[in-house]
Amino acid sequence: MNNEEKILIIDDELMPRYSIQQVLKGRYTVFTATGGREGLDLMAQNPMDVVVLDLRMPDMDGITVLREIKKRYPDTEVILLTAYASLDSARSALRLGAFDYLTKPFDKDDVINVIERGLQKKRDLSTKKLEHEDLLLTKEYLTQEIESVRQNLMLYYDGTIKALIYAIDAKDHYTFDHSEHVAKLSSVIAEGVGLSRLEKDKLQHAAIMHDIGKIGISEHLLRKESLLTRDEHIEMRKHPNIGARIVNAVPFLEDTVEVILYHHERFDGTGYPEGLKGDKIPLTARIVAIADTVDAMMRDRPYRKALSYSQLIDELKKGSGTQFDPEIVTLIIDNKIKLL
Predict the structure, then answer these.
(1) What CA dihedral angle connects 220, 221, 226 and 231, to 10 degrees?
(2) What is the mean pLDDT of each run of 10 residues along the chain (340 residues)?
(3) 3-state DSSP call for residue 173?
(4) Which of 10, 104, 181, 331 could form a disulfide with 39 if both were Cys (CB 3.0 to 4.6 A apart)?
């Protein structure tokens, strides 16, 4: 018994309407309406928990009213009033969403019983709805907490990785800040070839780590000012595989593996470590390959001075289709990708 629970009785006949009202009076808040339109207007002002609805009414038949109630107020339970002659209609109405039906003449205890069962179903649905909303809020909270933890972990990983990168760059004073410059150039090229913001961010994160494998290369080789010997070249070429093994062991860095492993592949298939050719080389690795070479050409080396921009463009033209992806080179030559 709950006086706050609202029952609406819709019936064009006074006696059934009045009888049910008297049975429920004092138990619940009871409203009455003499027809379907009046009942729907009343519900627009006062949400109802249960509607007791006569099937046969002159202004709107009960089936039509039932459909409207279920369309507008799907959580409201509907109990039908019917005569024996219209039991088939009542059963059809149950298939349309009515909770149950009462036959005229009805018994007081039957009315109370069916109303209480309808209200209990409404209560159970409301409880489940609240529990579902609580679960959604809990899920949202946990998702936010997990994302916060992930972001914190990423900050720690980024800090660790940057420390390693600075350590690598410091081993070769000719390439100080090289990794950061390559990351910035890669981002510019990525935007020029139409990568999405997410793809561009992932690429920039990978590009800054492209030479992380050099942590496993002798400092003597990294600092050597003269050209490398054949054996020294073989040793230096190990750094992509070393780098890939390092990041493979670190969660959240799986997106960086292809760039680290393949940024020394050449478009004509003569690069290393696997000799991939053309489109077999991941686009991200092709982008970093150009950014890596461009940054190297823009720096003074023991055996040459930094190239001018026009000389840099000439070198890209020479390497187009052999060392570099020709489509990216064309975008740079046509100034659709501005490196400076």
Answers:
(1) 130
(2) 79 89 88 92 91 87 89 90 66 75 82 87 81 79 80 73 73 74 95 93 90 87 84 93 88 86 97 96 97 91 84 95 97 90
(3) helix
(4) 10
Collapsing DSSP to helix, strand or coil, 299 comes out as coil
> For position 93, what pLDDT does the model report?
67
Which pLDDT score, from 0 to 100, does residue 16 have?
A: 87
The full set of domains in the chain, from first to last, is: 6-135 (3.40.50.2300), 172-333 (1.10.3210.10)
In this prediction, residue 323 carries a pLDDT of 97
Residue that is written with structure tokens 């092709």 in the block: 286
Q: Find the Cα–Cα–Cα–Cα dihedral 194, 196, 197, 198, rounded to 10°.
A: -140
pTM of structure: 0.57
- Taking the C-alpha atoms of residue 266 and residue 280, their distance in angstroms, rounded to an integer, is 10
Q: Which residues pair with 320 in a beta bridge?
A: 324
Closest CA to 211 of 185, 175, 187, 186: 175
| Contact yes or no for 262/282 (Cβ under 8 A) | yes
List the one residue out of 233, 312, 219 whose CA is nearest residue 271. Answer: 233
Residues sharing a CB contact under 8 Å with residue 141, sequence separation 6 or more, in sequence order = none
